[in-house]
Amino acid sequence: METRTSTNINVKALSGGEWRVTDRRIARDNALSLVGFISKAEGSYEVMEFVDPVEHFVFPTWDDAVAHFGTAVLDDHNSELS
To answer: pLDDT tens digits for 18-76?
Structure first.
């Protein structure tokens, strides 16, 4: 198993309260580079992570939401795609 670290992710603002999270190790034109989204909610940050199945999380801070993607453990199938 491989761990995605904070240096492997890129967070790009889509709007004032939504961000796209991608894996830098996968080409941007490859749909597999998209690992999830972060959305600002009332008093928290909602995370949608594209794993099988898609998972949803709520974090109290922006830093916690971003850190979630930087500490993800990838299964053997996903690590072969990078």
So the answer is: 999 999 999 989 998 999 999 999 999 999 999 889 999 999 999 999 999 987 555 44
Q: How far is 64 from 9, CA to CA, in rounded Å?
A: 14
CB atoms within 10 A of CB 66: 18
Tell me how far apart the alpha carbons of residues 42 and 38 are, in angstroms, rounded to a whole number. Answer: 13
List the beta bridge partners of residue 19: 13, 38
- In which band, very low, low, confident or very high, does the pLDDT at 82 lie, cut at 50, 70 and 90? very low
68 to each of 23, 29, 53, how far by Cα in Å? Answer: 13, 23, 17
Does the reported pTM lie above 0.85?
A: no
End-to-end CA distance of the chain: 13
Answer for the pair 36, 50: CB distance below 8 angstroms, yes or no: yes
